[in-house]
Sequence to fold (204 residues):
Amino acid sequence: MWKERKKAAKRLYEIAEDQQGFFTTKQAKAAGFAENTHPYHVQAGNWIREHRGIYRLASFPRGERPDLMLWSLWSRNRGEVAQGVYSHQTAVTLQDLSDVMPAKLHMTVPKSFRRNSEIPRVLVLHFADLSESDIRVAYGVRVTKPIRTILDLLKGGDVPIATLRQTLNDGLRRGLIRRSEVAEARKRFAGNKQVRSFFQKVAA
Fold:
């Protein structure tokens, strides 16, 4: 019995290690921890309950942005695959394109995304079916690439055009955005007057 518990603990650690110490109820069960033992591990101080169905190993060092992994796991589907991609104002900050820290976390989820429970107040959800080419990884979670982020903010209209144009030019100058990505965006949204006008004044 002791050996089985040790093996289960090892399996859970391996899962949590890739998720900054976080894991879900289903992942704990898959590792070998029966669901009726979960309250014990919380009371014993082995696990910390971060949200409904999401825990963190108490012994695991806290990362720089644990909140990002927490809400990424919150967005998982029934297959335990995270659906959310950090985007808009949050993605700009995470990719060092701005030093502004938005009050809430912006996340893009598929149009088919549904939750029976209330959406956490810390999150602002945007619904769109992203292409994998629009996504990269930062802080261990999925984030929209800078060019997609700028286009999303342009469409949203919450950030001044001049600010977005400066952000794009800075991203190009620092190598965070490739000119081939700009060319692709021009082609992809050639029929969009707003996008076409935006790119006309971008540095050559």
Summary: The radius of gyration is 20 Å. The first strand starts at residue 22 and ends at 24. The mean pLDDT is 91. The CA atoms of residues 134 and 148 lie 6 Å apart.
